[in-house]
Each structure stands twice: as C-alpha cells, then as structure tokens.
Amino acid sequence: MHTQARFYVLISTLVLAGLVLAMPRQSAKGQGTEATGLLTGTVYDHQEQLVADARVTLQPPGDTEPLAETRTQADGRYALSVPQSLPDQLTVRILREHFEPVVMVLDAATIQSLQAGQPVVLPDTVLARQITASFWIATLVFIGMLLLIAFGKLHNTLAALLGMSVIFAVSYLGRPISDELFIFDFRGALRYVDWNVIFLIMGMMIVIAVVERTGMFQWLAFAAYRVSRGRIWLLMLILMMVTGVASAALDNVTTMLLMTPITVQIALALGITPLALLIPEVLASNVAGISTLIGTPTNILIGSYAKLSFTDFLTNLTPGVLLAMVGLMIYTQLVYRSDLRASDAGGVSSLMMEKLAERARITEPDHLKKAGIVGAFMLILFIAGDAIHLIPAVTALMGATALLVWIQPDIEEMIEAVDWTTLVFFIGLFIVVGAVQEVGLISVIADAIGQFVGSNLLLAVIVVTWFSALLSTVIANIPFTAAMLPVVGYLTVTVPGAQSKVLFYCLSVGSAMGGNGSLIGASANMVTSGISERAGYPMSYAYFFKKGFPALLITVSLATLWLIFHFLIQNPATP
Amino acid sequence: MTDSQPKQIICAVRGGAESRDTVSRAIQLALETGARLTFLHVMDAEFLQYATIGPLSVVYNELLEMGTFAMMILRDRAQRRGVTDVDYVVREGSIRKQLFQFAVATHAEVLVVGYPTRSSGRNVFEADEMDAFVTELERDAHIQVIQVKSANAARQ
Fold first, then answer.
1. What residue numbers bound the domain in which A57 lies?
2. Nearest Cβ partner for A208 among B15, B53, B67
3. β-pairing, A38-45 with A77-81?
4. A244-258, A344-358, A411-425: which is most confident
5. Are A349 and A485 found together in one domain?
6. Chain B interface mutation, best of A534, A540, A543, A546, highest count of B Cβ atoms under 10 Å
7. Is B53 among the domain residues?
C-alpha cells in the first residue's frame, strides 16, 4: 500500500477506535419493556458477582419445550417476554456452564399477574459454582502459561497464544465428548478482553515512539551529570528522579531501555561501575511508575477494571510513591556508598565526557516541542476527562492521532513502533485469565483470601499488598495482576470499608514494587540487565536479589503505611 | 605465537571489570611487538525480547553507541599506555560468527580473548564451548588465540 494511504488508514483506525470506545453501552435494562407479560430478574454467583450469558427459560414442569427463552446480559439481568396464554403451572430454569442449574416454581399469584399482562420481577437468583473437568484444565493451562513465561521457555506472547489456543481446543473439541470439558466459546472469551486496555496501550505506544526518537532521554541523563557537577551521589539521586518521572509519564520499560545505555556511558566515563547507577535507576523506575494510570501496564489493567481515573492514582497513590522513593534514595545511597566513592579508572575522563556531550543533545527539537504540547493536552484530558466520562483509552487515541497528523512522521516507522506482539499478548492473556475466571478458580482464590481476612480491612490491606509483592518477585506481574483483579473486586465488595477501592491500590503497589524483589520480577529489570551485560557488567540474579529485595521491603512497607494512613485513618470509608 | 612477530592483534572483549586482564595482556603484547591493536566488540540484542513495549530500533542504535563508547575508552587506555597503532571495531549479530569473520577478514595473527569465569554473570561462552571455538579459530581462521584467565576463571 502507498505510504500516504497507510498513514490515512492508521489515522482512520485510531479515530474509529476512539468512537467505538466512546459509544454508550446498551444494557439489558428496558429490553422488551413494551411487551406484555414481562418476567425480569437478576442472576448473581455466590460472591455477588453478576452472571452473564446464563440461559433463562420459562416452561411448564417436566422436560418440555420452553415457552420463552433468553440470556442474561453483562449486568446479570434478564427479561423474558411471556406469551399471552399460559398454563397453570410454570417454572423458570436458569442454566449456566460451570454453575449448578436452578429451577424456580412460580406461584399462582405470579402466574396470574403474567396472564394479566403485568410485569413481574423475580427475586435475585444466586447460582452455586460447579467444579468440573474444565476447572482443572483451565487451571493447568493458566499455571503452564505462567511457568513458560517465568522460565523464559516461550516469548510472553507465544505463551499466552498457546494458552488461549489450548482453551479453545478443549472447549470446541472436548464438548462433543463431554459438556464438562467446555470452558467457553469464542464469543464468551471476547467478553473478557478489555479493549480499554488494548487501545490505551496502543495510543501510548505511538506517543512514546515519537518522544523516544527526539533524544530526550539521552539529553536528560547527561543534564543530570552536568547538574551534579561531578558529585556522584547527587548524580545518582537526579538519575533516580529523572527515571521515576519518565516512568510515571511514559512507561518504565521504555524509560529503562533508553536510559540504560547512556547511564552506562556516563558511569564508564566517571570510572565507576555502571551497576551503582543502573540498579537505583531501575528500582526507582519500578516504584515511581505506579504514581500514574499510564505509568505501568498493571496500573492500566487496574484502572480500567476498577474504574480508577488518572486523578485517582495521582491523589491516592502518588504521596505513597514519594514516601517510598525517599526511602529508596536513602537505601541506595547507603548500599552504594563505597561504589560511589570508588573510581577504578582514574576518575572523570574529560575526553570521554566531551564525546558524550556531543551525543547528548535533542535530535528532533520540533517533534519534541509538538509532543510536549500534545502531551500537555493529554494530561489535562487524563485529569479532567473523568468529569465528562472520557475514558483514558480515548484520550490516548486522540493524542496519538493529533500527534501523527501534526508531525506527519514516516508511517512505516510508526507502524513498526506499535508493539503488536504486546497487544496480542494482552488479548491472549485476557482470554486465559478469563478462562480461569469462567471455571471458578478465581472464585476459589477469592473465597480463600476472603475467609482469611474476614471483615478486617487492615488485614486485607496487608495481605493484598504483600501477597502481590512477594508473588510478583517470582511470577510475571501482568498476568498475576490480571488474575487478581476479580479477587480484589470481590474483597472490595465483601470487606467492610474496602469500598474506597483501597485494595486495588494495594494490588498496584504490590505488583509493581514487588518487581524489585528479583531480576525476573519486572520487564524493566530484564532489559536493564541485558544492556548492562552487553557492556561487560552482568547483573546476576543473586546480585539483583541482594540489592533489590531489601528495596522491596523498604518501599512496600512505606507504601503500605501510606495506604493505611490515607484510607483507614485519614479517609475511612463508611461500610 | 607465530614464528615472526605479529602485525595485527585483535582483542575481543565486552568491556567491564572482567575484561581488564584481557585488555592489559593485549596492550602489553602490542607494546612488545609493535603490532596494530584492534579492540573488537560484538553486540547481540537477543535479550530485547524481554521488552514489552519497545522502541527497538532506537534502542539498537543506543546499544551500538554504548559498545562504541566502551571501545573508545579501551583505545584511550591503550594510547595512554603507549600503543600508537590502535583502533576499535563494533559489530552486531552473533558473537561467534562475527568474531570468526573479523579474524578471517583482517588476517590478524593473534586474537586475545578472556576465559569464561565462575562469576554468577552470564559468560559469552561456557568453558567447553570456548575450547571448541578456539580450536575452530586456530584451524580455520589461522589465528593464534591467547586466552587470558583471570583469578576467577572457570578452570585453572
């Protein structure tokens, strides 16, 4: 396709995606309200979660043909249009895979009302979970996917795609053998894909692609060196702040990808080990990234699921992040005090610094200026958008579109800059996590945690934060967070006082700051380690654990204290 | 070593603390023989698969710049030690393949490389791989390989 044509196709796609996301959703409410004789109700599971896609039939007792039939909508509601002539005995049956069937016998008064053409609202129906073979299959697939990712046996995207394919294969090929093998069909699977997340990430990728080519990161890192005037302890603090702010505004993996090479060069020119600057940087990146909705993929997941706005993260989490950052800065100064004094190559090499200075300049000032202006508007919309129900995905898409139209970059480069494999990873992940949610694994976990914490909000805060933090050191935090969202959603409803959504912030803190506990805990750690190793400074698992795990303990403790103070003492929610 | 004095020495290193002995040995050899010394750095970017949202083309360039910078520092060090004919080359791709090709293309007589260490960081080659590669280089690229073992070498 011609380059210009491709450009307009991309622009059109972004605009259309924005429109689709902005369209109001149709609910089951009001459906069929003009029909005479309407039977309505709502279906929940035992955790008070709405049950969608349950088959609801109205039929006489016995194995007879249904008189009316419908399915519950996403809001768990159903509305059955009842025919005018009805027998004297009627039952309503609710059938849903992975739940015990429910049969309700309608009393005479209800049947009479229906016969008179009056609408009838049935009491809420609660379905009990049914553990079948599909439960174990989906659980094994989910664990298998996590292991493949954790041990690096398959690329994240391939692991998620494999998991998704196995789920579908079992559902479609297994159902003719036994209904117990059915997990969900394609339509049911798509219900679990959060398109807000996909489009928000896509929009931000385009914005980042423009910014990263401007040389801003390299300039910032070198500016940090200049400002520090040779004081390495100060250089470390400034680099941590720069990395933290960039991670919160863009993305922590991108930030570390671009900050690490220039940091290595500065360290080499100063004659210090690059690890003394890189470890503090990556720790700061993982901590500070969660202060905004767009700073980490986990926050994007949490924000979309829990309907937390950009402002919510800023007001409820940023003070805690700042507190954690102060603790982290003190810790890194202490840990690296000897490295920061040492200079194994005779101190600053002026020749090398001159070489660095030549490179550390803004290469595309015009693009940076335009990106800055668009970024400022995006920030305003992220913050103010909540008031007009403008979701962040739409803001990101509008910002990306505006930037593309204004800059008119090489569209081939822009298309390459969108990391499609990551978007596919998220889609596959949503479907695999959706499968374990569908079969009830998430409910089992939620029940177990719910029973453990009971009605104690303080205990719930501590358990969710630390459970997330410690598990995130060994398993990838994105799938972990995606799986934990419904669990935290359940606890938010059941634990008195958790309606402030404090537990979602706990999940954010735990899953992101937990990444500091081990080298494999966060993608940012892995890319930093990879680059550092290429320069001859390997970052081993043991080394990272030794430096990172105490940082996890300090930062998660401080953030937990903030969450307890802010949500339980300063602004306690009324149960 | 070859019967006559070498005219060209390659020193293949990543940089970093564990390369120090290897670099020193190469500089010493260049000073003793008056041969041209070339530092070779090969950058492979396989690890970038861990990037979830990655500006990979930009990062790739940054990695090459980083490798170049590390080699410039080594060149600076060699010049300060008195080596007059010294340069560096940065290549990208498979380390094994690039090293072999460079050795053949330059007709260098001596290659100075490090030896796998026992350190917890990943080595470019494991000890057995290194031995096999050295044999291959000496046989097919007709180059003498000097392996510099540090105190932390995998085999003593």
1. 38-127
2. B53
3. antiparallel
4. A244-258
5. yes
6. A534
7. yes
The rounded radius of gyration (Å) of the Cα atoms in chain A is 27
- pLDDT above 70 (res A5): no
Separation between Cα atoms, residue A219 and residue A423, nearest integer Å: 30
CA gap B31, B144 in Å, rounded:
18
Q: What is the pLDDT of residue A58?
A: 92
* Domain total in chain A: 2
Residue A462 domain-assigned (yes or no): yes
Report residue A252's pLDDT band, with 50, 70 and 90 as the boundaries: confident
In a domain, B112, yes or no: yes
Residue after which a domain boundary falls, among A127, A144, A165: A127
Query: Does B58 map to a domain?
Result: yes
Q: Which residues of A touch B18 (CB under 8 A)?
A: 536
> What is the pLDDT, as a whole number, of residue B56?
65
Q: How far is B130 from chain A (nearest CA, A)?
A: 17
Task: From A127, A154, A189, give the residue that closes a domain.
Answer: A127
Q: Assess if residue B130 is contained within a domain.
A: yes
Phi-psi region of A30 (alpha: psi -120 to 50; beta: other; left: phi over 0): left
Of A209, A352, A422, the CB nearest to B52: A422
Closest by Cα among A308, A311, A294 to A254: A294
- Is it the case that residue A150 has pLDDT exceeding 80? no
Q: Which domain holds residue B59?
A: 8-148
Tell me: the pLDDT tens digits for A485-529? 988 998 998 899 999 999 999 999 999 999 899 887 888 888 888
Kindly list the strands in the beta sheet with A91-95, ordered across the sheet, starting from the edge strand earlier in the chain.
Answer: A68-71, A55-59, A91-95, A102-105
Query: Which of A208, A478, A530 has the CB atom closest to B55's CB atom?
Result: A208
- Provide the pLDDT confidence category of residue A33 given band limits of 50, 70 and 90: very low
More confident: B95 or A127: A127
To probe the interface with A, which of B52, B65, B68, B74 has the most A CB atoms within 10 Å? B52
With beta carbons under 8 A apart, name residues in chain B contacting A355: 69, 72
Model confidence, pTM = 0.77
Average pLDDT of chain A to the nearest whole number: 86
SS3 A62: coil
Chain A: residue whose CA lies nearest to B120: A540
Say what percent of chain A tops pLDDT 70.
92
Question: How many angstroms separate the CA of residue B3 from the nearest CA in chain A?
Answer: 33
Q: How far apart are CA B114 and CA B149, in angstroms?
A: 6
Pair (A486, A356) in one structural domain: yes
Number of structural domains in chain B: 1
- Same domain? For A106 and A219 the reply is no
Q: Up-side HSE of residue A63: CA atoms within 13 Å toward CB?
A: 0
> Where residue A61 sits, what CATH number does that domain have?
2.60.40.10
Q: Are residues A123 and A227 in the same domain?
A: no
* A220 and A108 inside one domain: no
The pLDDT of residue A329: 96
Asked if B69 lies within 8 A of A253 by C-beta distance, the reply is no
Mutate to test the interface with B, among A206, A217, A252, A264 (most CBs of B within 10 A): A264
pLDDT at A37 over 60: yes
Q: Give the mean model confidence (pLDDT) for residues A395-421.
A: 84
A181 burial type by CB count under 10 A (0-12 exposed, 13-18 middle, 19+ buried): middle
Indicate the pairing of strand B8-12 with strand B36-43.
Answer: parallel
- Residue A386 included in any domain: no
Residues A452-480 have pLDDT tens digits of 988 899 999 999 999 999 988 877 788 88
